[in-house]
Specification:
The protein has a two-stranded parallel ribbon. The chain has one domain (4-98): 3-Layer(aba) Sandwich (Rossmann fold). Helix 1 (9-37) runs parallel beside helix 3. It has helices at residues 9-37, 48-52, 58-77, and strands spanning 40-47, 83-90. The longest helix has 29 residues, at 9-37. It has three helices and two strands; from the N terminus they run H-E-H-H-E. The radius of gyration is 16 Å and the shape is elongated. The protein is of the alpha+beta class.
């Protein structure tokens, strides 16, 4: 575990790149496909470390909480289409990540 004063920028950036930037890049590609299909579902995985915090993991917690914000904002940006964005905090408290229409139209999967 590392506390904030001991982090070097490369340690911070490596975790942000994997977790937050990874979700961003996948979302950017998926939303374009969803627009072409006029349908899509996306589940993003965060962590209670982002929601509640965890000593020695400020980079990880910041990245995971950023995923929560990303999921909410992408959902706001696509309200008129048949797209759903949800964040699933592992170890957390998500009831139904996709809502009542988990199968989508005509029983299609969630891709």
């Amino acid at each position: 575990m590392t506390d904030v004063p001991q982090y070097v920028p490369e340690e911070w950036q490596a975790v942000i790149d994997v977790h937050l930037n990874g979700h961003f890049n996948i979302n950017r590609a998926a939303v374009n496909l969803f627009r072409e299909q006029n349908y899509g579902r996306m589940i993003m995985v965060s962590s209670t470390s982002g929601l509640l915090g965890n000593v020695g993991q400020c980079n990880y917690g910041a990245a995971k909480f950023g995923i929560v914000a990303l999921a909410r904002i992408v959902a706001m940006e696509t309200p008129r289409r048949d797209h759903r964005q949800r964040d699933l905090p592992l170890g957390g408290y998500a009831d139904d990540p996709l809502g009542p229409d988990a199968k989508g139209p005509a029983g299609r999967g969630t891709a």
